[in-house]
Amino acid sequence: MHTNQSELLQLKNLGLASVNILHSVGIRSRDDLHRVGPVEAFISIRSRGINASRVLLYALQGALLDVHWNDLDPDLKARLASEADRHLSSMGRR
């Protein structure tokens, strides 16, 4: 197992499938995810044609906060979803 893969797997909410998806968009460490941010990471994933639901968006945010995605504040989830939807709509995706 690659060191950075192991690092990402240690984050809450992220399993092997999620880590592989993150790798496909160039996110290989917690620092990469933090630098890019959950919304931009989600947009990059969707832009590659990967069918990812909002749960992945929430999971990415939760991974950075060390919180289970389902325990994120509902207002935060709404802001994340709104921002992602805005970007995806402007790209003709949703």
Structurally, how many domains make up the residues? 1
In CATH terms, the superfamily is: 5' to 3' exonuclease, C-terminal subdomain
What is the CATH domain class?
Answer: Mainly Alpha
Helix amount, in percent? 55-70%
Radius of gyration, rounded? Answer: 12 Å
Count of helical regions:
6
Strand segment count = 0
Order of helices and strands: HHHHHH
Detail the poorly predicted runs.
none
Mean pLDDT: 92
What is CATH's topology name? Answer: DNA polymerase, domain 1
Architecture, CATH level 2? Orthogonal Bundle
Most strands sheet: none
Residues in β-strands, percent: under 5%
Summarize the structure.
The protein has helices at residues 3-9, 16-24, 30-36, 38-47, 54-65, 74-90.
